[in-house]
Specification:
Layout lengths: L12 H15 L2 H5 L3 H15 L9 H21 L16 H6 L23 H45 L8 H45 L5
Helix pairs in contact: 1-3, 1-4, 1-6, 4-6
């Protein structure tokens, strides 16, 4: 995480990545996850971190790990919100009253009044060491964005699985159990939904295979049609 407000002075980038991956792995078990209290969840996450961390990384306490993970998750959520496309009615970051007019073209933007820099104002090109440092910083930022996206996707999948699990419990534990009319209809709809998903995946695989064969065939035709040169 970049910035002093996100990463504490005693947590490295590598520790943040290992912690985030440990949280994702523990979160991917929806059935167990629904039975866990917060303390139990973070205990498992802490154990997962200890097993996954390289030997050179320091051991962290449960309180330290859980606090750090919550900070990472907050930053991931903020990053996900920032990367959402702005809506038409959303408030502008600058809180300028005529910002909407600038965005829809009815008022010229500030950039149209900015003069291009002259040759005297050009900055010196960055040196090799600084360029390498900038590239490494960007690489770390991209890696954390990817971890944030994976964590957000895992959280969505977990919530979906939990919702489905709760639906199953509702119909199996209700009056009449699995033999009730409502439960039978519910499971019938689940089967239809699963079957439809399987059909879609099969159709996608078939289309991909046909496209690959067509592409390979086109390449072979071009090779055969090329005149021999001697």
């Amino acid at each position: 995480m970049s910035g002093t407000n996100v990463r504490g002075f005693n947590y490295s980038t590598e520790e943040d990545v290992v912690l985030a991956k440990a949280w994702v792995r523990v979160s991917e078990d929806p059935i167990v996850g629904s039975e866990q209290k917060g303390n139990t969840f973070y205990t498992k996450e802490c154990n997962e971190y200890k097993q996954a961390k390289p030997g050179e990384l320091p051991l962290r306490s449960l309180v330290s790990n859980s606090t750090r993970v919550k900070t990472i998750l907050k930053h991931c959520g903020d990053s996900a919100v920032e990367r959402q496309p702005p809506t038409r009615n959303a408030a502008t970051p600058s809180n300028v009253p005529f910002a909407d007019e600038v965005s829809d073209g009815s008022r010229p933007s500030f950039s149209s009044h900015v003069r291009p820099p002259t040759s005297r104002s050009k900055k010196r090109p960055v040196g090799r060491r600084k360029a390498k440092k900038i590239a490494q910083k960007q690489h770390n930022a991209n890696k954390k964005i990817k971890i944030a996206q994976e964590a957000f996707k895992a959280l969505q999948n977990r919530n979906t699985a939990l919702s489905r699990h709760n639906d199953i419990l509702l119909f199996t534990n209700g009056p009449g159990g699995v033999h009730s009319k409502q439960a039978q209809e519910f499971f019938s709809l689940m089967q239809e939904e699963a079957l439809e998903a399987l059909r879609d995946r099969a159709a996608a695989r078939k289309a991909k295979r046909a496209f690959t064969e067509l592409s390979e065939g086109s390449v072979e035709d071009v090779i055969q049609e090329e005149p021999a040169t001697g």
